[in-house]
Amino acid sequence: MGKYDEKAQTEGLTVWSLAKAKESFKGSPINDREGKVILVDWKLEDTDDNLVHFSRNDMQKMAAEVGDLVYLCDKRAYLGGLKSVHTVYGEPHDGEDGIVLLGNEDLLNGVFIKGRKLTAEKEM
Questions:
Q1: 75 and 110: one domain?
Q2: What is the pTM of this model?
Q3: Which residue has the higher pLDDT, 13 or 37?
Q4: Of 12, 74, 114, 117, which has fewest CB within 10 angstroms of its CB?
């Protein structure tokens, strides 16, 4: 029978180690700075890197850093998140504010419709 290591076998499973669980899920330190939810248009970027790219100003509004998690959702609330995706911030683009550049996979997973605005919210 193996030896029981309380720390190794309960880390992230109790309220006292919740921060550690979040960090383990994300894979990097948690960004708890309060940011704003913003409204954006999207453009398809020919890439398979599974990252989304916002302008520097938009990332500042959301208090986001490269590698943080972001929730993109069709702004029509009555859809209940059916057209949405959880993804990761990539390096900011130098283009226009209010535009998010999506890769093919995020576009397919989010089931976004051309011309429909999205809300963007930093998760952690």
A1: yes
A2: 0.84
A3: 37
A4: 114
